[in-house]
């Protein structure tokens, strides 16, 4: 009896796994590559803010080379995302352009002050999430 | 008394009395709005003013948030139906301008 159960349970388990994986794959594929790219830009900008947020009372040591390299890498991501957007939907291109401008504003602020206050960082992250949600929830 | 009212009470300059009242009205109207974006914008702006008054954030950082929020709000206003655009603009962009030009400069000058 157990033998029969095991034999029939194994294919059932495989079928359940296959269905689950297929559903996950469908969910992933229905998200457009444009949306995924925009989410990556948001994540990169938020990570940048985290990186340059000073802990209370302790200014972080400044590393110009590391800063320049990080800025160049994220700027490249924005440039590629903007270039990848079809001219058929100008609003999306404009949105990414605006997001790149918001990132460059933070770059300028960090370049000048070498850090961001925890209060500013928290507000800025909330603001960026609100901005990206405008696009991602369309 | 709310934290915003506490912050605004620091401003004694009578020439900005009307601006203070108008700003408070815009914030309250924005917080009561049915659209999540307008509500959230009003709540954020209120908190920024409170943080500047408590010296948790510099004026430079405040101005940066306001300039950026104006860009974000313009995206939002453009996405609204024409009939709703004027109200959305009043409760987001106009409130931001009022805070940046009339309220916060005086608030910071008062705190020095």
Tell me what you see in this structure.
The complex is a heterodimer of chains A (138) and B (112). By secondary structure, chain A is mainly alpha-helical. Chain A has two domains: 1-30; 32-136. Helix content of chain A is 81%, strand content 0%. Chain A starts with a helix and ends with a helix. The model of chain A has no long low-confidence stretch (mean pLDDT 83). Chain B has 112 residues and is an all-alpha fold. Chain B has one domain (3-111). Chain B is built from five helices and no strands. Chain B has helices at 3-9, 17-31, 36-53, 59-78, 82-111. In chain B, helix 3 (36-53) packs parallel to helix 5 (82-111). The longest helix of chain B has 30 residues, at 82-111. The radius of gyration of chain B is 14 Å and the shape is globular. Chain A binds chain B through residues 95, 98, 101-102, 105-106, 109, 113, 116-117, 119-120, 123-124, 126-127, 130-131, 134, and chain B through 37, 40-41, 44, 47-48, 51, 56-58, 60-61, 64-65, 67-69, 71-72, 75-76, 79.
Sum up the structure in keywords.
heterodimer; A: 138 residues; mainly alpha; 2 domains; 5 helices; B: 112 residues
